[in-house]
TrEMBL record:
Residues 266-408 form the HD/PDEase domain. Keywords: Magnesium, Metal-binding, Nucleotide-binding, Nucleotidyltransferase, Transferase, tRNA processing. One of its GO terms (molecular function) is nucleotidyltransferase activity. It comes from the Bacteria. Its cofactor is Mg(2+). It comes from Agrococcus jejuensis. SUPFAM superfamilies: Nucleotidyltransferase (SSF81301), Poly A polymerase C-terminal region-like (SSF81891). SMART domains: HDc (SM00471). GO terms for biological process: tRNA processing. InterPro entries: Bact_CCA-adding_enz_type3_sf (IPR050264), HD/PDEase_dom (IPR003607), HD_domain (IPR006674), HDIG_dom (IPR006675), NT_sf (IPR043519), PolA_pol_head_dom (IPR002646), PolyA_RNA-bd (IPR032828), tRNA_adenylyltransferase (IPR014065). This is Poly(A) polymerase. It holds the Pfam family HD.
Amino acid sequence: MTSMAEATARLQQVAATGPTAVLADAFATAGFELSLVGGPVRDALLGRATSDLDYTTDARADDILAIVRPLSDAQWDVGREFGTIACRIDGETVEVTTYRADVYDGVTRKPEVTFGDDLADDLVRRDFTVNAMALQLVARTDGGVERIAPRLVDVGGGLEHLLASTIDTPQAPEVSFRDDPLRMLRAARFEAQLGFHVADRVRDAMADAAATIQNISAERVRDELVKLLSTPDPTGGLRLLTDSGILDHVLPEVPALRLEVDEHAHHKDVYEHSLTVLLQGIALEGSRNPGAAPDVVSRLAGLLHDIGKPATRRVEGNAVTFYNHDVIGSRLAAKRLKALRFDNDTVKAVARLVELHLRFYGYMDASWTDAAVRRYVRDAGPLLERLHILTRSDVTTRNRRKAERLDFAYDDLEHRIAELAEQEELDAMRPDLDGEQIMAILGIGPSRAVGEAYRMLLDARIEHGPLEREHAERLLREWWAARAAD
């Protein structure tokens, strides 16, 4: 925010344009209150682009649907149970929700939905003061329900907290987090998303209530974690979750990276290294794929790539080793992401990237053969671009000469990949004979042997490059004869 006058002007503009003005007139005519609420109000005050327009009203779901149906070209009532009706007006999707007064018992994972009749009561139950402000458009007055000059309703000091860049709660934070422990993850996300700091009392309450995050379903935790990782810099939010002890219950492999550093056997601070890799990977995402949506797979891989180190840490003389931490880390990543209910494609992709993240370092020892480059591409498959980003972002050494040498080596590897791709169509690498041809040459039907022959020919393709049909057929017959002899 810059000045109150500018903030007021922004709110007035939001109130007068798009679906807001249309809805305000319709709800006033129908005799119900209406306010723009939450994120859109916050973002308008901050001068950020407003999206995901949310409104709140004293109307119930059936009344909301009756009001918006003539105004919109589509409606969705999947949130009717919670008093929410979504619709599309002038190309924008909006949601209108009945005032809420939810009750949580602190144990179950979902609130008991209770509807309210008062805007102030609805705002007080919201998560943070910066999200608990409303721009009231239609209000009950002595003369009935009227369209009014838009006014800001702020019951918890949200405007003051916006000016101070502070995340705080409308109620006592221990009450707010007891009501819905997911709000602790949201605090970390908003710290990262808005660049704000979390109030001391909120931090203390998060630490005290850390274990209650286990009362929240894995799906809700996953979704909030994804939102955090999708911010331009999630590291501040992750540190908050680590320091408060919440990440011990959500993603315990990450705080476990804070390995004790032996005064004689030195190694990097793996926790800080991982946060740096995550941040460097985000920067590379932006430079290599400008304008693309945040790549959560890449970000998870950057954060989790070294989680196998605690289990593989060994002290050898004056050094610490982590042999096979890539393989162990891959298994740990898959197990954790499955527990968080990530989809199978994400689980497999992140685990594979963790497994492959050290593969490049063999390139530093000696120049790779064409066959080795082909294997690198084959093993990465569709994850090659993400592997490029992870491997490059994994360089966090303060030794500039070493960093430049690693960067030059990877430049060379990418150049080699590009050259071979142009010559041999690496992206579509296949054996020189397909399954039908293999069966015809060997005179066999579909079987495990066909798959074995296919893999043998693919290995030959990787080792030697494209083969002439006659050469490939000879290799196949020789392999088949040797197999039969065994």
